[in-house]
Amino acid sequence: MSRSHRQIAQDFFTALSRGDLRDELFTDDASIWTNSSGAAEKAKYQGAVKLLQSLFEGGLGYTVDSLTAEDDRVAAEVRGRGTLKNGNYYSNTYVFILRIRDERIAAVAEHCNTVVVRDMILPLMLAAMQSAAHG
Fold first, then answer.
1. Where is 86: in which H helix or E strand?
2. What CATH number corresponds to the domain at position 93?
3. Domain count of the chain?
4. Closest to 13 measured CA to CA, from 58, 47, 51, 49
5. What does each C-alpha distance from 13 to 19, 92, 119, 124 come to in angstroms?
6. Are strands 38-40 and 56-70 parallel, antiparallel or unpaired?
7. How far lies 5's CA from each of 8, 27, 49, 65, 83, in Å?
């Protein structure tokens, strides 16, 4: 039974909220791009998502406000919200463009307010990466 592009996108956001973007979600040659980091290999994106989730008490939850599917593309308006481990509340709005091929994600383009990411997330990510490098 084939899954719709909308269902594949929903599955992606469920996995994103868990911080568990498994390989089977993606094609082998999947391309990833975020406006806060640029182009990334799939494995690097998967690792960054796990690291990002670890910065939140109870994780960063993603809520899909709308999905538009046409041809091989899904456009999603999404909100990300959660309480950071430093106690600050994080909220950001995202637009994701997903390309689907053979019922898997072949490309992700993630757009968000990078000022919020820079001010709230980046310092915690850098501290976590530094801690991991010295730990």
1. none
2. 3.10.450.50
3. 1
4. 49
5. 10, 15, 24, 23
6. unpaired
7. 5, 14, 22, 16, 31
Burial (0-12, 13-18, 19+ Cβ within 10 Å), 106: middle
The pLDDT of residue 31: 97
Instruction: List residues bridging with 93 in a β-sheet.
Output: 79
Q: pLDDT tens digits for the chain (135 residues)?
A: 478 999 999 999 999 999 999 999 999 999 999 998 899 999 999 999 998 999 999 999 999 999 999 999 999 999 999 999 999 999 999 999 999 999 999 999 999 999 999 999 989 988 887 877 886
Structural domain that includes position 67: 5-134
Cβ(106)–Cβ(73) below 8 Å: no
